[in-house]
Design brief:
Layout (H helix, E strand, L loop, with lengths): L12 E3 L2 E5 L7 H4 L26 E6 L3 H13 L3 E8 L2 H15 L10 E3 L3 H6 L5 E4 L6 H10 L3 E4 L7 H16 L4 E3 L7 H11 L6 E10 L16 H4 L5 H4 L2 H4 L2 H10 L7 E4 L6 H6 L16 E7 L5 E8 L6 E8 L2 E4 L4 E4 L3 E2 L7 H16 L6 H20 L3 E2 L12
Parallel strand pairs: 3-4, 3-6, 4-5, 6-7, 7-8, 9-12
Antiparallel strand pairs: 1-2, 2-5, 9-13, 10-11, 10-17, 11-12, 13-14, 14-15, 15-16
Helix pairs in contact: 2-3, 2-13, 5-6, 6-14, 11-14
Length: 432
């Protein structure tokens, strides 16, 4: 079924009837401007029209929304994907984060980072400034709670999109994202997600072998992670009162969706991919002792996590599908000396260990490749290459389905009761 229903600046500019703030920057800061001459803050922040082949010179104009580590990394990967790429607009809620990202991009990209102050936007409405500044492609890397809004705005403006995972933090957000993704596909726009393991050569090789019958019919997937705490930013006097939680959005469920949705969704996506991207019948909470791995990996057993914020430290659920296949998924985040991750697929004739890259059963096999960052590069090359060639990639269905699976699992854990797929908004019909 297709996707169907589902700072303050000295010279702020008016953009599409909304107030957006352009960041003033000293023209002497070479690292910020990448060696280019800074435009005046009073200059118009919108690029000239002309499209990808303006004046016979191919240029793919990229805008970045969300200038944290992942957003900055995505912008660098876009620049590395093709010489035609220029990063021409950036926006973030916080001025210091935008400035830090701009310094990195300017240092690494030189004059291919072409962001004068008039195209640097700060504040809650900064995403509008980026989208409406004449870009061709938008990188969405702001916190997950605003991704449905940003995706809607980008698609409505006719932009190609890279959207980080997860696409939303709740069912309503997934419904909005799925509707925007459907409009994107209908308009022939690219939409590539941050579920980058689907383009990771090592993972693709393993999943292809599973789908080709190397371990028989997959019956269950175990995906458990006992990992340390996420990054945190210190309380800074320069921020407005109450902004510290948003600066540390990854540790607050209202911004991130919680660890199971924000972090473990990547593993859930791999499990769903292995089982054929089917919709489950229901998800139910499971006890901490059910996944043996999780119980043995907690170390001291102390209830203290050392965490900030309000995200549940532990979430453990089981998804059951119509034909009896299951996914058991759990995450435990707390202070610990080392991480432990288990991802095992059990089939009718063998077992695949995704972490080790091995298969045992009637056919013994082990991959010679090792995990690496190639997945990020290939994902961005797929997006950029598709846009430039006119053969765009579109991940709308899988990114919305996997996000909804994670949200569904968190709901089961929070309520202590099973959650039916058909009980979700639209009976799950907003995803394929």
């Amino acid at each position: 079924m297709p996707l169907n229903t589902l700072v303050t600046a000295a010279h702020p500019q008016r953009i599409a009837g909304r107030r957006s703030t352009a960041l003033p920057v000293e023209t002497s800061r070479r690292s910020f401007l990448g060696g280019t001459v800074a435009a005046s803050c009073a200059a118009v922040g919108t690029l000239p029209t002309g499209g990808l082949f303006a004046a016979g010179d191919q240029r793919l104009r990229v805008g970045l929304i969300g200038c944290g580590g992942r957003g900055t990394g995505a912008a660098l990967q876009a620049l590395e994907a093709d010489p035609a790429v220029r990063v021409v607009a950036i926006g973030d809620r916080f001025a210091d984060q935008l400035a830090s990202s701009a310094e990195v991009l300017g240092h690494r990209a030189g004059d291919r980072f072409d962001c004068p102050p008039a195209r640097c936007f700060v504040g809650p409405e900064s995403y509008r400034g980026v989208i409406e500044s004449g870009v061709d492609l938008v990188l969405l890397a702001a916190p997950p709670h605003v991704r449905p809004l940003h995706l809607e705005a980008a698609v409505a403006a006719g932009k190609h999109v890279y959207c980080e995972k997860p696409v939303a933090i709740d069912v309503a957000g997934v419904v909005r994202a799925a509707a925007a993704a459907a409009r994107s596909r209908a308009a022939g726009l690219a939409l590539v997600s941050g579920f980058c393991f689907r383009r990771d050569p090592r993972t693709v090789e393993l999943v292809t072998r599973i789908h080709d019958g190397a371990i028989g019919r997959p019956r269950s997937v175990q995906t458990h992670a006992a990992i340390g705490l996420p990054w945190r930013k210190p309380l800074e006097s320069g921020r407005e009162p109450g902004e510290w939680p948003l600066a540390n959005w990854i540790s607050f469920a209202r911004f991130s969706g919680g660890h199971f949705v924000e972090q473990h969704v990547q593993a859930i996506d791999r499990a769903a991919w292995i089982l054929g991207d089917l919709s489950p019948v229901f998800a139910e909470p499971i006890g901490l002792d059910t996944p043996t791995f999780l119980g043995s990996a907690r170390g001291t057993g102390s209830p203290s996590t050392g965490a900030i914020g309000d995200c549940a430290a532990t979430t453990a659920v089981r998804y059951t599908f119509a034909d009896g296949q299951t996914i058991e998924a759990s995450i435990d985040r707390r202070e610990r000396s080392c991480d432990r991750i288990v991802e095992v697929v059990t089939g009718s004739t063998g077992i695949c260990d995704l972490v080790r890259g091995t298969m045992a059963g009637r056919r013994q096999w082990a991959t010679e490749s090792t995990p690496g960052p190639a997945r990020y590069r290939i994902t961005m090359e797929t997006l950029v290459g598709g846009v430039l060639s006119g053969k765009v990639a579109h991940d709308g269905a899988s990114m919305c389905r996997s996000t909804l699976l994670a949200v569904m699992g968190r709901m089961a854990s929070e309520t202590g009761r099973p959650v039916a797929w058909n009980g979700l908004a639209g009976g799950g019909s907003h995803v394929a």
